[in-house]
């Protein structure tokens, strides 16, 4: 079972990154991964001796001091978790961005991770850099599968923003989800078959974000007929229930609570 050790600093949420970036320290000692996920997976011991990575993440807008719903941050945290790296989490209130945020990322966005004394922004860049610096366990998705499901998020945003029910944005999203459902049926349960890879860690949080946001704003949910997509989404949930105390559990639960 995953173990969560947590040390907090009350001042850290307002202090600058150099003095008290360490709002919360998470270290996990690794048990197993997802229950049905991957016969090929090996067990890895947490890199307890590694220096914790510093990670800036979105703070919940509804529950101060808790992780917010940001699929990009979730992707980065899930990647760090899968690589068994300890990390210190700094929650950033994006409604009141501190000055230091712009110093370390002029775009003023999260996630941001400090790697080799350099702050890196953007989940694509961060996860790539993590893969290069910490190649074990490998998470790269084979190139021919890397774009599977990659249009779902943009079509979801199109539908979310749409005010005209007949403008085709819902259909576009359904088309993408249907195509992903067929892919999973033939190739699943994950994008790279039996192994969770980077593409899942990117897509999984986005699907949760989509389901919750569209449920809230449009009373819409993924149709039951897309059973492989439904199961794929629950796969992460099963991991949550199973791990109980792992941070990825918290990440996924936050997606439910904070939208
Ligand atoms: N392309 C970026 C997107 C990051 C992003 O949009 N983060 C949001 C939070 S979910 C943010 O920081 N928003 C603040 C803002 O746009 O001002 C990535 O992949 O990391």
From TrEMBL:
<dbReference type="InterPro" id="IPR004045">
    <property type="entry name" value="Glutathione_S-Trfase_N"/>
</dbReference>
<comment type="similarity">
    <text>Belongs to the GST superfamily. DHAR family.</text>
</comment>
<dbReference type="GO" id="GO:0033355">
    <property type="term" value="P:ascorbate glutathione cycle"/>
</dbReference>
<keyword id="KW-0808">Transferase</keyword>
<feature type="domain" description="GST N-terminal">
    <location>
        <begin position="60"/>
        <end position="138"/>
    </location>
</feature>
<dbReference type="GO" id="GO:0004364">
    <property type="term" value="F:glutathione transferase activity"/>
</dbReference>
<dbReference type="InterPro" id="IPR036249">
    <property type="entry name" value="Thioredoxin-like_sf"/>
</dbReference>
<dbReference type="InterPro" id="IPR036282">
    <property type="entry name" value="Glutathione-S-Trfase_C_sf"/>
</dbReference>
<protein>
    <submittedName>
        <fullName>Glutathione S-transferase DHAR3 chloroplastic</fullName>
    </submittedName>
</protein>
<dbReference type="InterPro" id="IPR044627">
    <property type="entry name" value="DHAR1/2/3/4"/>
</dbReference>
<dbReference type="GO" id="GO:0045174">
    <property type="term" value="F:glutathione dehydrogenase (ascorbate) activity"/>
</dbReference>
<dbReference type="Pfam" id="PF13409">
    <property type="entry name" value="GST_N_2"/>
</dbReference>
<keyword id="KW-0216">Detoxification</keyword>
<dbReference type="InterPro" id="IPR040079">
    <property type="entry name" value="Glutathione_S-Trfase"/>
</dbReference>
<keyword id="KW-0560">Oxidoreductase</keyword>
